[in-house]
């Protein structure tokens, strides 16, 4: 589809380790992906699969116990890991916008919403107080908040959950970011409110040209808005591909199992839900074999010996798996 | 077969709002307002709705974890709202609950065996030996290895903790279990395990469930009949296939269309009904129909008169003025449809 020479974001072999009292946790293991300008990439995975930690790693927003132990993050060709403090602040404040899952805990309860938006505009865009105020009202209008000028004076608790998430999006969009990272932005919301926010994002994509990383555990949300999907398991990307291709032709047993376990709201029930037996991996050590192998129906000896590399399985579609669903046997690699 | 086990009539649960130094009552939150429904023995009634619509309050009021403001709830012929003290206590074994957060509902300082045995100690006169035997049985039934009996809840994963909660709920051989969002806190791959377990247990033990959830896909999988709640009221109640294929209430239609499906080709063509605005506060519900502030098909009458909850077609209840109009205009037609739909759809459900 898009073939731009330089990706907006290029992540290569990123590794993040948490040093905890009970040993190291290898949360992100050799994760590589890129994002083209204007592209919406959905990142799906269960809790603990490393999707949030990956995104926080590339922003440099990790707690003290975490360490990025390898890899490279290029944003428009600039090395993010090599940035000094000021560059990094500008990168996080101006180039990237972040929307978190819970707008109540990520907005500051003691400042009104207007202050929280204009603060950023004045710091990174150098706007005057009056200009920033005007721009803030425009942003609230852009995300569909009625009476924007009035509502700038309101505090976060005066907004409902869906409206608060709109405020978060307005703040994230304040400095015209080229990349928006949305970490489970609709998970805390009800379905009818989620539908409103998804509709808003579809509209915003028409108006603004920015890359979006949309982290979620809901495959339905991804199917509706993403151009491309990354599936994460055990701190690794196990499958990656364009959305239509990935859903129509999933290659990794984990992706296939995930799609099978979901009941459908539009179709009559099947006899019984398929399950994925067992538990997610513990991540105490860097993976030396396939981390899904203990739960995989198709695992064979090679899966226990060797961690699969990401193998091209279709147009712009790859999967980290030694098993080939087409033949039902090992892949010839 | 289709005997009614639970009968809920005019159930109201209002929470008072107190204000000022004298803590005077200034109003009330109508969390549950005038519910009428039955649950048949052996079925699963799905109760769906968004957060704050009163679905959990309904579950708790039915089990007398709250004292309902008015109305009656008869479980197996006994009105539990009227019972007090020891009489109520004697009814407890037959009605149990599975909670949403398996982390919060298990005492972290008790061992698994003690957690599961606690209802037995409270409500039966089994000897320690008999209790141990029963705990082992229950752990087998929910798929927990017996060797875990002496561990503490924190040593288990979310899915396993939910199994502990289920084993405890089953300990006294209840007839009726309220499952309050039992899978909401679990990962997708674990949800299916727990749902299958609940289904297996229902088949084996002949349990009746009230399954409270906001996950409409899972309810479609699990429920025999489904009730949709909005702002303290049931707006629609129908057999599963009927509700999902032919939703009558505009809120149900919007709710179903808002659920994203994991299929990009379907998503690309599917029409979403986007509701405007937010749910009003249950302390100040709008005049007339509760849904009139967000309804895409709102009429003048909706803002004045509350619609009545009544049957439109076989077993399909809804509360909406639109349906009243349809009936008066095309009453014959809808009756014919109902007649033809009646027999095949109902047989399809029970098998």
From TrEMBL, chain A:
Main localization category: membrane
- Show the InterPro entries listed in the entry: AAA+_ATPase, ABC_Ni/Peptide_Import, ABC_transporter-like_ATP-bd, ABC_transporter-like_CS, Oligopep_ABC_C, P-loop_NTPase
- UniProt keyword Nucleotide-binding, yes or no: yes
- Any single Pfam family the record assigns to this protein: oligo_HPY
GO terms under biological process: peptide transport; transmembrane transport
Keyword Ribonucleoprotein appears in the UniProt entry: no
Q: Enumerate the subcellular locations listed in this protein's record, separating them with semicolons.
A: Cell inner membrane
Question: Where does the record place the ABC transporter domain?
Answer: 12-259
Q: Which domain of life is it from?
A: Bacteria
- Recite the UniProt keywords alphabetically: ATP-binding, Cell membrane, Membrane, Nucleotide-binding, Transport
Entry GO MF terms: ATP binding; ATP hydrolysis activity
Q: Which NCBIfam families match?
A: oligo_HPY (TIGR01727)
Record family assignment = Belongs to the ABC transporter superfamily.
**Record's protein name:** Oligopeptide transport ATP-binding protein OppD
Species name = Pontivivens insulae
Record lineage: Bacteria, Pseudomonadati, Pseudomonadota, Alphaproteobacteria, Rhodobacterales
TrEMBL record, chain B:
Q: Where is this region: Disordered?
A: 328-351
What does the entry list under GO cellular component? plasma membrane
Which SMART domains does the protein's record reference? Answer: AAA (SM00382)
| Keyword entries, A-Z | ATP-binding, Nucleotide-binding, Transport
Q: Where is the composition biased (Polar residues)?
A: 334-351
Q: Which GO terms describe its molecular function?
A: ATP binding; ATP hydrolysis activity
GO biological process, alphabetically ordered:
peptide transport; transmembrane transport
Which residue intervals define the domain ABC transporter in the entry?
A: 6-256
UniProt key word Cell membrane: no
Q: Where in the cell is it found?
A: Cell inner membrane
Entry membrane topology = Peripheral membrane protein
Q: Which NCBIfam families match?
A: oligo_HPY, PRK11308.1
Q: Which family does it belong to?
A: Belongs to the ABC transporter superfamily.
Xref: PANTHER family: D,D-DIPEPTIDE TRANSPORT ATP-BINDING PROTEIN DDPF-RELATED, TRANSPORT ATP-BINDING PROTEIN
Tell me the protein's name. Answer: Oligopeptide transport ATP-binding protein OppF
Q: Which gene encodes it?
A: oppF_2
